[in-house]
Design goal:
It contains no helices and eight strands. The chain has 97 residues and is mainly β.
Length: 97
């Protein structure tokens, strides 16, 4: 996959939630599930150009695991794989290990 996002856009691979609850109950595919809100950054754009003509670098980088807003990113399939493209402002936090 070769995606080069523009401006302040970020390509995210969503991380699906566990199929088993904390109590060990298997969650069936027919159960309504929330969209994942956690993912791994696959690519970042060069940053947005400000009014002063300077490009502002993004705070996230490739490989970061991030939390993002549920309905902000746009969903796409690339090479049969689901990816999300979001503005940096849709990213709420970077998770550290």
């Amino acid at each position: 996959m070769n995606i080069s996002p523009l401006a302040d856009r970020v390509v995210i691979e969503p991380i699906e939630k566990d199929e088993v609850s904390a109590a060990g109950i298997v969650i069936p595919d027919t159960a309504e599930k929330d969209k994942p809100q956690k993912g791994k950054v696959l690519a970042v754009g060069p940053g947005k150009v400000g009014d002063d003509g300077k490009r502002a670098a993004l705070e996230v980088k490739k490989g970061d695991t991030v939390l993002f807003t549920q309905y902000g990113p746009s969903e796409f399939k690339v090479d049969g794989k689901e990816v999300l493209i979001a503005s940096e402002s849709d990213i709420l936090a970077v998770l550290s290990k």
